[in-house]
Design a protein that fits this description.
Beta-Lactamase, 25 helices, 707 residues, elongated, 4 domains, single chain, alpha+beta, 41% helix, Alpha-Beta Plaits, eight-stranded mixed beta barrel
């Protein structure tokens, strides 16, 4: 017996209801030829005429006679099979039945059902009567139904069709369904549709149709030909559903996957997809030009004016780029303050220089942010697609080399990629040397930022953040040295030091009797790939004396997506030790929630970009709410990064976010300052008013930590 889901049963019942008053008998049989469903006329033809009980199944003689006609369908389920059978009746002449057989798959059942129509061939039933009965059956269905004649002229439309399109039957009778065309669906789709149904095959697909009022909607349509006893097509039946809401959902997912939520530009994934098209598509024969833009000293704006100001600046830069480029150019934001442009069919050096100078001039204009005029410049790297390389990764690396060369030239300028560029290698060697000296000379330190329980205000964890105080260049931001540490391998000894230092700090808090906090430590990509990673983690825990469940390791999405099997294996080894696992900057990389089900992670850190301009930005509200809700359903906790306002905090509380982190609670501070603030509850001076009582202070009083 075929397994029939509730959804399949619903569709079967709907089908039988359609034929409940029909003079055509309908049977649905499973693979064992057991009757799954039947309409009243089928019961009359088979069981009542031979005075048999339907509960006993189909008559044995009928099944035996039927079986040879069904066997061809098991070999080719796409075709129909027709046959005539004599059905013997007690004390009556035999009944001649015309049986048409096909295979259907209600609700995507793994094994289809035999669909049989039974006609009393002894009678010359009128096609008009059948059609009328069919119309009555579908009038109250939830699907839109139209029936045309063989020429495609509308003869009938049910009430649901009128509700969906705004057209009454009187308005469209005798007209072609082409009046619904939106002129957006490709003409080739309609050509293929008519070719299919005129060859007596069913057509299934989606069309973007137009209502009477001019608005458009997505329609999922099934169109079938109807033929007479001689096999000639007499009518076409279209059954359709309005799936606009499904398309809207798909578009939202597409936007989340391929577009930057801050600027609405294409993101890194979108850029790589487009670049591959230019490299491999014949319609995009080159050469073309790739530009990589990096804002000069953007980190200073974030540090001095806050991330909100930085985001406003990035939006302005994005708008100016879109305004400046022509129709043959595409603009993308790779992340942070990096943008890329692809100019189609632009490869003459003079023309490239003219376009780039226009960009530099426009972008150098002051930007009004609040009460301040902010001036920002960009450094641009240029490489020729299809000339400098045929590989997407190499092209991006070439543009990156050229861009850093432009920075070395003084910034606010551009540079073309050249094969003999060695400045980057020299810079990497210099950075590597300085980093190794930094570790040996105690130039590196850790700053700590708390994570706050969104519901009760308790500090539950602290994140350790690496800082570098250079003896001559001052404080160097992590974004300026960590990528080079990754590339040179210097990150490995630095990462081991960070892990041990953070574990010892967490253990010191416990030793001094303070409420225990989970220590969050970031793992770099190079660390994650290190075959000695597990041993280094064990060593840090053993040396510090910190219990594993007080340690949480953070990994970025991109690290996990490079090699999924290896990532899962490594995460499982860490997880079995009792250590918590978090995915950092979730929503900006390549993973999806479906991937998360395969990974033994405990927590997601939602990237700060999704909190931008909340509660004003409705898109960011929708995205953040969706991520948190879906993560909760997977049993994952969520940390929202970049919380800077009370409005953002209240929003996160309302959508049941687990933890919050950001400047509203504390900037990253050194360990001694953190410890002093933790003892005296100074972290919550801006938050305590949001709660009836300060739970942190209560805990501290109970343990005798406060005077």
């Amino acid at each position: 017996m075929s397994k029939i889901t509730q959804s399949a049963k619903h569709h079967i019942n709907m089908l039988i209801d359609w034929f409940s008053q029909s003079s055509v008998g309908v049977l649905l049989l499973d693979s064992t030829l057991q009757c799954v469903a039947s309409n009243p006329y089928a019961v009359e033809l088979i069981w009542e005429r031979i005075q048999a009980d339907k509960s006993d199944g189909l008559p044995h003689d009928f099944v035996q006679a039927l079986r040879p006609h069904l066997e061809p369908l098991t070999q080719d389920s796409s075709h129909q099979h027709a046959a005539y059978m004599h059905l013997e009746q007690p004390d009556q002449p035999s009944l001649l039945l015309k049986i048409e057989c096909s295979i259907v798959h209600p609700d995507d059942m793994e094994q289809g059902l035999f669909f049989l129509t039974l006609r009393n061939a002894s009678k010359n039933a009128q096609l008009a009567r059948k059609l009328k009965l069919f119309k009555n059956a579908v009038e109250n269905t939830g699907s839109a139904v139209i029936i045309t004649n063989a020429n495609g002229e509308i003869e009938y439309a049910n009430t649901r069709f009128s509700d969906m399109t705004g057209y009454s039957l009187s308005e469209i009778k005798g007209k072609s369904p082409s009046l619904l065309r939106s002129d957006i669906t490709p003409e080739a789709t309609y050509t293929e549709l008519w070719d299919t149904i005129r060859h007596q095959k069913k057509w299934h697909g989606t069309l973007l149709n137009k209502r009477k009022d001019g608005s458009t909607y997505w329609s999922l349509q099934n169109i079938s030909p109807i033929h007479d006893e001689l096999g000639d097509i007499t009518n076409f039946v279209s059954v359709s559903e309005d799936i606009s809401h499904i398309k809207a959902h798909d578009q939202q997912l597409e936007k989340m996957a391929y577009y930057d939520p801050l600027t609405n530009l294409g993101n890194r994934r979108n850029f790589r997809r487009t670049l591959d098209q230019y490299l491999h598509s014949r319609s995009h024969a080159g050469p073309h030009t790739l530009l990589l833009l990096d804002l000069d000293h953007f980190k200073q704006i974030n540090d001095t004016m806050g991330h909100e100001a930085g985001d406003a600046l990035l939006n302005t830069i994005a708008n100016r780029l879109c305004y400046c480029v022509s129709d043959n150019a595409s603009v993308f934001r790779l992340g942070g303050d990096e943008f890329t442009l692809i100019f189609q069919d632009l490869h003459e050096r003079d023309a490239i220089i003219n376009s780039v100078n226009e960009l530099l001039t426009l972008l150098a204009q002051p930007v009004q942010i609040g009460f301040h005029d902010v001036r920002v410049t960009v450094s641009i790297g240029i490489t020729l697609i299809g000339v400098d390389s045929q590989d997407a990764s190499d092209l991006l690396r070439n543009a990156d080399l050229a861009m850093y060369h432009a920075k070395q030239l003084g910034r606010n300028t551009f540079a073309f990629y050249e094969t003999h560029m060695d400045e980057k290698a020299q810079r990497i060697l210099s950075i590597e040397h300085d980093l190794r000296n930094a570790l040996a000379s105690d130039q590196l330190s850790l700053a700590y930022q708390p994570q706050v329980n969104a519901q009760d205000g308790r500090i539950s964890a602290i994140e350790a953040l690496l800082r570098w105080q250079h003896p001559t260049r001052g404080e160097i931001p992590p974004d300026d040295f960590i990528p080079y540490a990754e590339e040179t391998g210097a990150i490995l000894p630095i990462g081991r030091w960070v892990l041990l230092e953070a574990c010892e700090a967490a253990k010191q808090l416990q030793t001094e009797g303070l409420p225990h906090l989970k220590e969050c430590v970031n793992l770099s990509a190079r660390q994650f790939d290190d075959p000695d990673l597990i041993e280094h983690i064990k060593e840090a825990l053993a040396t510090s004396g910190l219990a594993p469940h007080w340690l949480e390791l953070e990994i970025t999405e991109s690290m996990l997506m490079r090699d999924m099997p290896y990532a899962i294996e490594t995460l499982n080894k860490i997880k079995v030790m009792g250590i918590s696992l978090a995915i950092d900057d979730f929503g900006t990389g390549y993973s999806s929630l479906s991937h998360l089900k395969k990974m033994p992670v405990d927590l997601l850190k939602v990237d700060r970009s999704f909190l931008h301009d909340i509660p004003k930005d409705k898109d960011n509200i929708a995205i953040t709410s969706t991520i948190i809700a879906m993560a909760k359903r997977l049993g994952l906790s969520v940390v929202a990064e970049g919380v800077e306002t009370k409005e953002q905090m209240h929003f996160l509380q309302a959508i049941d976010c687990s933890l919050m982190q950001g400047f509203l609670f504390s900037r990253p501070i050194d360990f001694e300052t953190f410890k002093a603030h933790y003892k005296t509850c100074q972290f919550h001076c801006r938050v305590c008013l949001e709660y009836n009582a300060c739970s942190i202070r209560q805990d501290a009083n109970a343990e005798g930590l406060l005077n």
